[in-house]
């Protein structure tokens, strides 16, 4: 844990969160459920081959458009040479693993904080198995996506192993990205018509 | 299209891909299907609160460990203030949209190239709707993940609207990240045991 994080913990924070802020947020949403409706967004521009770039800035949430970001986050997708690219960035499946790792981690430390569990350290190793026969359309029996994703988590916290296992079971069901992967979520591709 | 991309196209490339390389890759996998088995990976370290960081470098594919990346890609997840963070990076759901945008884009231009369709430009706008009552465990009837994801695509190519619509229908079924979101994919969280 960094010096800054320790100082924060000494300020009454738990896992880097202000417990009063957690309670205030939960109470606000409980009292006015429509505030919990969020819409996240990304804008992406193709560059060439397997290279493309997203800009991420605005979103809707808590009943309003967020304006907290002065400039967009910019991330580049690429492909390795074996997949006809030049390693311009991680590839989309690897970014999916990054999203899943982050979501499971944040869900874990936030719900741990809500339970009064102090997490000392947490790291994960993810692997996603995929058979490209599906992507290439070479075998109609092979799905295009991941066959399975495994998350190995090294977590140290001031609670029992049983409490950790119960927490992680809860996290599996409540992490938004984990749930989006585990559950069938409809994706619609609409082509914009130019006049 | 950039000057570099135009020069590449004049070198016989289509959508930034070498058609002979596409054919060679497809033929290699068709003749030896186990080569199509890939395992992508990410390693993530929690920092504090909603901030955590992934390193992405190695993967398994084409029957071997890839060594093309001299150093890892590093990406940081964060949360906006309204979600108790400090905008340390995009949040995990936004990274999921970036992964989806990139995968649908690359799948489109690669399969277009395989069909001899030249794509002049392609950009997308994504929105993912999510109700945080599920994430927070405040309503058991609300799923934790995205309710739906919409991709609006502005694509210009040298083919008919009917060919574009047919291409995008194929892409919806063959983009690995799109398929991973649309289809239920098992995610396993294993806790590492320290001695």
Protein described:
The structure is a homodimer of 195-residue chains. With 195 residues, chain A is an alpha+beta fold. The first copy, chain A, is built from six helices and eight strands, in the order H-H-E-E-E-E-E-H-E-H-E-H-H-E. In chain A, the strands form three sheets. In chain A, strands 1-2-5 form a three-stranded antiparallel β-sheet, with no helix packed on it. In chain A, strand 3 and strand 4 (64-65) form a beta hairpin. In chain A, helix 3 (92-114) packs across helix 5 (161-174). The longest helix of chain A is centred in the middle third of the chain and has 23 residues, at 92-114. Chain A is globular. The termini of chain A are far apart. The interface between A and B is large, with 135 and 135 residues. Strand 6 (119-131) of chain A pairs antiparallel with strand 1 (37-48) of chain B.
Low-confidence stretches of chain A: 1-7
Q: Name the strands of the widest sheet of chain A in spatial order.
A: 1-2-5
Radius of gyration of chain A: 20 Å
**DSSP helical segment count of chain A:** 6
Q: Give a count of the beta strands of chain A, DSSP E runs of length 2 or more.
A: 8
Please report which band the strand proportion of chain A falls in: under 5%, 5-15%, 15-25%, 25-35%, 35-45% or over 45%. 25-35%
Give the helices and strands of chain A as they follow along the chain: HHEEEEEHEHEHHE
- Fraction in helix of chain A: 25-40%
Multimer state: homodimer
Coarse structural class of chain A: alpha+beta
